[in-house]
Design goal:
Helix content is 80%, strand content 7%. By secondary structure, the protein is mainly alpha-helical. It has a domain of 60 residues. It has a two-stranded antiparallel sheet with strand order 1-2.
């Protein structure tokens, strides 16, 4: 979902640079209005950071669950060995 939003904002920024409102500067060169570009760039930056944070959180949670699983399997194998040696 966030990647789609990010792509959408990137497309809007590209479209704005090509066809958006412009202002004329020296030598009859025109360029997009800075406020619109700044707004879109800040949205893109925000979405990128949010996506990166979510990704990091996901990886940390996966690592945590993997560690818990491995610890549980070690404890389980120890209790099985103890039970089989006491028979």
């Amino acid at each position: 979902m966030q990647n789609q939003e990010l792509d959408q904002y990137q497309d809007e920024l590209t479209h704005l640079k090509q066809h958006g409102q412009t202002m004329c500067v020296e030598d009859d060169n025109s360029m997009p209005l800075p406020s619109e570009i700044h707004l879109l760039q800040s949205m893109i930056t925000f979405l990128k950071r949010t996506t990166e944070r979510s990704h990091d959180i996901y990886l940390n949670e996966c690592k945590l669950y993997e560690d818990i699983f491995n610890l549980t399997m070690k404890r389980l194998s120890r209790s099985i060995q103890v039970a089989s040696t006491s028979d």
